[in-house]
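Chapter review. Work through the record for Transcriptional activator RhaR before attempting the end-of-chapter questions.
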Amino acid sequence: MVFCNNANLLNVFVRHIANNQLRSLAEVATVAHQLKLLKDDFFASDQQAVAVADRYPQDVFAEHTHDFCELVIVWRGNGLHVLNDRPYRITRGDLFYIHADDKHSYASVNDLVLQNIIYCPERLKLNLDWQGAIPGFSASAGQPHWRLGSVGMAQARQVIGQLEHESSQHVPFANEMAELLFGQLVMLLNRHRYTSDSLPPTSSETLLDKLITPAGG
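Structure tokens for Transcriptional activator RhaR:
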């Protein structure tokens, strides 16, 4: 597991400021706008392709990009997720596919709990159609925002738990096992994800969205 609490993220930000040798508050604001999270701060080695970053909770966080990609699943609470200048009111069941070049931030958070499954596309070795399975896998394009119902969330949580355990191991084939679990998770999400407007109005998932989403905003 990669436990990325707010202190860890603050250290990344402070180091980013120091490396840029800032001399004014204006420069600090500029760096904050250009904040980029790096692989070295989140992956145990340059061989690791996948890891899990917990946000218990996710606090307000400035706009940033990464040099890795991530899947974001919201387990509890609500808030505002701004992705590439588009705001999304988020709550339990929201799923995002974030490309490295995407810029995003979190604001107006209320007991927001989520998990980031972070990955480096160039390190994946499993012979899977990653590009077909992950929207925006090779570029910042495609549909980034989806929803998961209760069944999909329960199954995803189980696989993520296994992935979290495996990615923290320092034993032979841990990286390979983690990648296999990541592939399973990606296909599971493909099976269960949906958009609210893609389901019949009487669908139980759609009806649940109508109840939950206003409360999440």
